[in-house]
Amino acid sequence: MLHPLHSAGSPDWRSQGRTSHTTTPNRPVLLCLLCVLSSLVDLTTACPPTCLCNATDVDCSGRGLLSMPALTHLPVTVRTLLLPNNHLSSLGPGSFANLTSLERLDLSNNYLDDLPPALFKDLGNLSDLTLHNNSLRALDKDLFQGLVGLRKLDVSLNGLSDVPLGLLDELQGLMWLSVAGNRLHALDRAAFEPLANLQYLQLGANPWECDCNLRDFKHWMEWLLYRGGKVDGVECTLPKDLRGRDIRGVPVEMFNYCLQLDDENRGGGGTRSGGKEGSSPPCGRTTGPGGTGGAPTSEVPAAGDLVPVPDCVRRRYQPVSVRRAIGTVVIAGVVCGIVCIMMVGAAAYGCIYASLMAKYQRELKKRQPLMGDGEGDADPEDKQISSVA
After folding, report:
1. How far apart are CA 237 and CA 244, in angstroms?
2. From residue 68, how far is each of 138, 352, 387 by CA, in Å?
3. What span, in angstroms and rounded, lies between the C-alpha atoms of 145 and 152?
4. pLDDT in tens, 169-205
């Protein structure tokens, strides 16, 4: 018999309690699933249509892009952005402004020929930047501003002819650098001195001119090698007598004539014949019109005029590297040791000679009485012969 409050068509109160008890714990799980689905929907809508995206990586490589895709809606969690093997020729300022968590950026194998200053200023977490195989002819000295966390930089296979002063000043944590395959003839030592943590440097496949302009950088390379760094081959193309040789194997003595040139530059010496055409005039000399090293002019600047300082002032002789200083100390020590050995040998020879002479004198003294007796014996005979005569 059924209870009056419990009919056959009404659900059991105990089953209702069990149903409510089993569905309540699933609500947080459903909320988490909804959050994940909403984030995936947001990422799908923010991802450029030609790229592949996930929560941390955006891959736009080999898509034939002519311009930068829209990256403004990407989440801040993106850590890798790949844009190689496209047809990008320029990048606008602020192209990566919202990607503050980016750690790797690959722009290799494009047609980039000009990059605006401070392009990467918002990428403080960037550790790997690749600009390999583009059409870069020059780099603005403020290009890498803000990249305090950069560890690897690749600007190889471009058309760079110079590394400007100040370009690498903020990259003190850089450990790997490649400028191989460019048009570099010489490098300024001061441009690389901020790289206190550099471990590997690629310089190959450049038309290096192993003259006085590369002397100070050679000293810096020796310092880098001395503290455990690695440098690939720096093969000379000029002058002819050094063509094909690695500058690391060229003796420092071959650059001694540079010291004389520096002295002449500081003292305003006479004209040096045989100078390279098209090079900057030596410091302290007045050149003719056009600044091509022509005949000296007779114009004297007024008292209040400012005379511009030529670029050659930066190429003055700087203190030698640590390795050369230690080598000088070692050589001086070896020379002093040889002199000391020679002095000891001379002293030993003198002592031996003195002892031999003393022994010889003693033997002579022992023989003198015998010789005296012989002379005494001979005297009577001589006397008899003289008396007979």
Report:
1. 6
2. 21, 90, 138
3. 15
4. 999 999 999 999 999 999 999 999 999 999 999 999 9
**Residue 356 in tokens:** 């031999």
**pLDDT digits 0-9 by tens, 146-174:** 999 999 999 999 999 999 999 999 999 99
Tell me what pLDDT residue 328 has.
Answer: 81
307 contacts: CB under 8 Å, gap ≥ 6:
301
Q: What is the pLDDT of residue 41?
A: 42
Picking from 190, 181, 187, the residue whose alpha carbon sits closest to that of residue 157 is 181
Phi and psi angles of residue 59, each rounded to the nearest 5 degrees, phi first: -115, 110
Judge if pTM exceeds 0.85.
Answer: no
Query: Are 129 and 147 a contacting pair, CB within 8 Å?
Result: yes
Contact status, residue 73 vs residue 97, Cβ threshold 8 Å: no
Looking at this protein, which amino acid is placed at residue 46?
A
Segment holding 128, helix H or strand E: strand 128-130
Q: How far, in Å, CA of 169 to CA of 191, rounded?
A: 8
CB 108: neighbour CB atoms within 10 A? 19
Q: Are strands 230-231 and 80-82 parallel, antiparallel or unpaired?
A: unpaired
Backbone angles phi, psi at 178, to 5 degrees: -130, 120
Distances (CA, A) of 90 to 66, 328, 373: 9, 50, 118
- Mean pLDDT, all residues of the chain: 76
Handedness of CA 95, 99, 103, 104 (dihedral sign): negative
Lookup: tokens for 273:
């014949």
Alpha helices (runs of H) in the chain, residue ranges in sequence order: 13-23, 27-46, 189-192, 215-226, 256-267, 322-388
What integer pLDDT is reported at residue 251 of this predicted model? Answer: 79
